[in-house]
């Protein structure tokens, strides 16, 4: 199991986050912690196997973030690298192991630096762009599964002598869900097709497609629960789990609020709408 360390908890933020300093022999000393790491643990006591960790390597005199962060390869078993805690009792995505990673004077060979010192920010942003397209696809998948469930249920379930799908309020839930799902799917495919995997600079639409599709997926799952009533709220049907899983997509890989900021900033450079 492998993962990537980008986020850190509020205590680490106050201390300046994970840091690594270069030693006289060219090695690096890594200290700090990372939070919310997918695949961070394989059990309550055991780490995963391999991680790519972003850490600040520039001194306080370097203010520009694009020159301050480096990327390191860290393996389980390295002295000082430990599992802080396996994070449990999550609202959703419970099959995905999440953990806190701790680094205490972890000595890393020079070869474990990936790229140039201070050169990881562009790589990080490019990876986030790809991740946001993946998360948007998860939102589209949740919407599709939810739409299938509510459509089938509305056909099979009868009330007052008629199929549930014959009632106007139910028709609105199904029709709007289908239209939003198709719009999100189209935006997703368009963005994925135009994505340049070798360069950053795709942020407007990678943020935009995640902004739309993740909330769309959550809303369609919510409508599915509403259509199915008490059954939709029960674990017997998948939609309550899909609804819980969908919420993380609005947070992970960049919050909706960060997408608003990024998109409006990038749109200031447009001469005309695409």
Would you kindly provide a written description of the structure presented here, covering whatever features stand out?
With 274 residues, this protein is α+β, with helices and mostly antiparallel strands. Helix content is 43%, strand content 21%. The chain has six helices and ten strands; from the N terminus they run βαβββββββαββαααα. It has helices spanning 10-14, 121-156, 168-194, 203-228, 239-249, 256-267, and strands at residues 2-5, 19-22, 28-38, 50-56, 69-75, 81-87, 98-108, 113-114, 158-159, 162-163. Strands 1-4-5-8 form a four-stranded mixed β-sheet, with no helix packed on it. The protein has a four-stranded antiparallel β-sheet with strand order 2-3-7-6, with no helix packed on it. Strands 9-10 form a two-stranded antiparallel ribbon. The protein is flat and about 80 Å long. It starts with a strand and ends in a 7-residue tail after the last helix. 38% of the residues are buried. The model is unreliable at 12-16 (pLDDT under 50).
Task: State the gist of this model.
This protein has 274 residues and is α+β, with helices and mostly antiparallel strands. It has helices at 10-14, 121-156, 168-194, 203-228, 239-249, 256-267, and strands spanning 2-5, 19-22, 28-38, 50-56, 69-75, 81-87, 98-108, 113-114, 158-159, 162-163. It is 43% helix and 21% strand.
